[in-house]
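Q: What structure does this chain adopt?
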Amino acid sequence: MTFVNMLMGEFWYALYLHADEADVITCERIEAVLGKTGTLQLFVENPISRDVTLDIQVTNPRNFRVDYTPKEGASYRPDLLEVGAYSESAFFVTYVPSALGEVEETQVILSHPKAGRWVYVIQGTGYVDPNPEPPWDGKGCVEMAKTIVSAEIGQASNNLLVHRNPLNRQITVQIRLLSENGELDMVRPSSSGQPRPWQVLLPHLTLRLEPFEEIEVPFLFCPTQMIRHSTSVVLEVVEMDSKPLEQKGFCFVYPIEGTAEAPGTMYLGKFSTRAREPLDTFLELPLSGADPIDVYAKVFEELNFEEQHLQALNKCLSLKRDRSPDAQAKLKEGVVRYHLLFDPLKAMRSKVSLKISLETGGAWHFQFDLLVQDADVDDVINIEGAIAQTRSVSFRMTNQFDERTPFNAYFTADSSAEFTVQPEMGLLEPYSSSEGTQFVVSFKPNSYGKLFKGRLVVETDEMQWAYQVNGHHPKYVAPKHAKTKVDTHIQPDLDPGVYKERQTGHKYLQENAAALRAEQKQVRRGAAELRRNAAYPD
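A:
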């Protein structure tokens, strides 16, 4: 470091700088429900002038992990964190408790040889909230994610429920079902003799689980009515390390929702139209086994399309509930009416699956086919070209929607090979573009007497255009009033003697015949000489 003054001169100082490691950062405690997770957001700042990649180390990976959102275009690497020059990056510490009321701790260490080292001390505690409502009566209750299952009415579906002991201690659990009247049941047979819609398929309903052990609980769902069925599989912890719990225990509750489905899939038929010609019709869907449907009842519909036509059908097909007086009258018969509007923009053949479900329970499956034929050609292109010469025409077009979209351009298989198009693929400009995308159609004929025809197709995922392309040779026009360069006609007004005077008197035919005979005679003479030499060699 230098200080300069015109009167006092220069002063030089040599500085030796040493950077100590950052102080240990103690973070706030994370509290999480047992069996679930808690998250804490933290930040790290890069103090140097270049981008760095920090190594991530977690001293207690069983209970803690580090996650972050990678930068746009970058891949996620679990043990590395990228931080820009003089910038700050966020990361998240996720805590998974394995004990109740005990403090669990970890250190998250971020390090780089040039940027330095950061140490974060993080603690977490697991808990279970008591539930005062019956049938829990103050017991701790951990509600897990809901499981949704389905089965045809009168048939049973086999299902599995996976439970993992989140504690670092051995526990003993009792498995029960929460009945529809809200009481805990030991999965006994129904007193009425009717089959229950739910049944746990375990020979013993009291199980001992080691720390972090995972078990599968199989259960049956067998609906007998087209109504919504619900229950909960309850795993009540009654012992810990083979010792009964002194206070009220706690339990893990797995809500299960069952949907009764009508048997089979009803086929509604085939709906056919041409591309760019809307199809407007109604679908009457009988919901077999359902009670009369209230006018204000909620009806849910779910359409499923084949993957290759998913994007196009999402834009061109709509299904809406018909609420006209005639449709409401049919609800009493268990028939739901829908308005189907289909406005395809390209040819296709696809199957559509439709699922109808009621808020009160029950689901019905339907299926129908969509057949879209080619639309009429959008335009006719005529090209005139001579043999072995290339002639081209160009035109511009935009997408049907206000967005750029990939396209493919090609001639169909029955088109003449003399036609080509450029470009064959690319991005089609949006509808609002003033220029559009340019296409060049070329024609190079190689023969006469042939009809040159082609069908040019430009298609995107949602739209298709077709053009009829015709190729022609230039039209021949015979010359008029042309004169020959050689005079081949006898003029009647001239005396025949004039033509005799024009003869040269040279006898070309006789001279040519004599020359030919002389050449043949010379050939024969040479052949005889060769035979003589062969017979009498020297």
